[in-house]
Design goal:
Number of strands: 8
Bound molecules: pyrazine-2-carboxylic acid, zinc ion
CATH topology: Rossmann fold
Oligomer: single chain
Structural class: alpha/beta
Distance between the termini: 16 Å
Number of domains: 1
Strand content: 15-25%
CATH architecture: 3-Layer(aba) Sandwich
Strand order of the largest sheet: 4-3-2-5-6-7
CATH superfamily: Isochorismatase-like
CATH class: Alpha Beta
Length: 196
């Protein structure tokens, strides 16, 4: 099993680990909650290594254009200031984490953590060269975040054990992994070094 070590030029990006995307929510991702203990270990490791930590949230107004009733494709989810939009209660979001809010304008969606958020510039200013991405959903917001990170020139690793797909169409998860890997991302199957 390959062991992974982080350094200060790394950032761990935790995408949209929110209640509404977990089993029992309105837009449930199978085993979505199982990413929490995995990502908590990566967050702790990042803290120990001086790597940056980014945690994003989908944060929609109640009449967001991505909702079916308003012309979109999704059931209502992650409505601002509701419990469903809260991070999973067991996710450790450290005080020093960069919180990215997206999807908060009624007329547009932002699948990628980098789209219109300034995150790319912010990470580059802090000397980040490599990003490790996990969270929800593998085939939607993780995919978009990974592809944007590559376009911005970051080295990109996908934390395979820390992500799950929503699979609107069966096979979407595998297709997303293939697409990300063809675009230059490395799919990291390994675990963190045991001392972290
Ligand atoms: C997401 C569907 C709709 C995601 C967000 O975070 O992957 N998926 N909005
Ligand atoms: Zn959304």
């Amino acid at each position: 099993m390959g062991e992974v070590a982080l350094n200060p030029a790394d950032a761990v990006i935790v995408v949209d680990v929110q209640n509404d995307f977990c089993p029992g929510g309105p837009l449930p991702i199978r085993e979505g909650d199982q990413v929490v203990p995995v990502l908590n270990r990566w967050i702790a490791a990042a803290g120990n290594a001086g790597a940056k930590i980014v945690v994003s949230r989908d944060w929609h107004p109640p009449t967001h254009s991505s909702f079916k009733e308003y012309g979109g494709v999704w059931p209502p989810h992650c409505v601002q200031n509701t419990e469903g939009a809260d991070f999973h209660p067991d996710l450790n979001v450290p005080a020093e984490a960069i919180i990215v809010t997206k999807g908060d304008k009624v007329d547009r969606d932002q699948y990628s953590d980098f789209e219109g958020t300034g995150l790319g510039e912010r990470l580059k200013e802090q000397g980040v060269r490599r990003v490790w991405v996990g969270g929800l959903a593998l085939d939607v917001c993780v995919r978009a975040t990974v592809l944007d990170a590559l376009k911005l020139g970051f080295e990109v690793r996908v934390i395979r054990a820390g992500t799950r797909a929503v699979e609107v169409q069966p096979g979407d998860g595998d297709r997303a992994l293939e697409e990300m890997s063809e675009a230059g991302a490395i799919i990291e199957e390994g675990e963190l070094a045991p001392d972290v």
